[in-house]
User: Fold this.
Amino acid sequence: MAVDINRGTSGVQLPPEVSQEIWQKVQDASVIMGLAQKVPLSGAGTVYHEVLTDSVPKFVGETDRKPVSNPTIGNKLLKAHKIAVVQTYSDEFKRDLPGLFNALIGRLPGTLARTFDVAALHGVGAPSADFDDLSGATEVSIANAVAGSTDAYAGFLAALAAVPELNAWALSPQGEVTALSNRDTSGGPILVGSAARDGSVGSIVGRPVFRSGNAYEAGTPNVLGIGGDWTKARWGQVEAISIDISDNPVFDDDGDLITAGWQDNMIGVRAEIHVGFIADDSQFVRLTDEIAEEGDG
Assistant:
């Protein structure tokens, strides 16, 4: 029988500080959770309204009729979706609780954060409805066609032109290498180091850069990062992380047996989070390594 170790009804009890540390590390590992706005989210979902266009006031004479100009309002449903994973451990971990807790802290956050990030950034494994992603955002090349050239710099400027309110970059290690191997038009570095600010590794054209391997997507072309106005992206969570432990058999997605559980002296640890994501992808750009062929442009 599965034992809920969050509520401590019986069996192994997960200390609140361990659960909190795991959840904090999930947020630290997720570039989306770090850059997008965190908002409240109920289990049934929450509707968020946004002003799409402002009203336009005008100068008028003393007795002239005043103009009428109403703002345009839009709304989106932020809905919770479950991300879950089962990890297996030997029975010895159950006897050595500190070892089990340390293993959970070390293994769970990165996997949960990556699943959320690649869904939101690239649409990989994303729910089919009521979950936005940035896979359809405009693509801008920062390809380093000539080493030491201003190619990438021109690309970053093009990204800024496409999204004037762009306020941060989520850059993969591959994108970071591209930025570091190029120069601006004055011969200076594109990626400028600065004192650590909320986890950024520096700035490009005055916008902070946050490094994350989750920002990379292999393809033709490869996506090296995402830039945008992150005030136009929201994420939310329902409660904290839920972790259950069981000595029942564990099966893979195809129904094949992974471990017989009790019979094999193995336990399974199931972790779940409920999160949602909404965004206006017109306010983001996907940075690629596409090199234009001669005659293009």
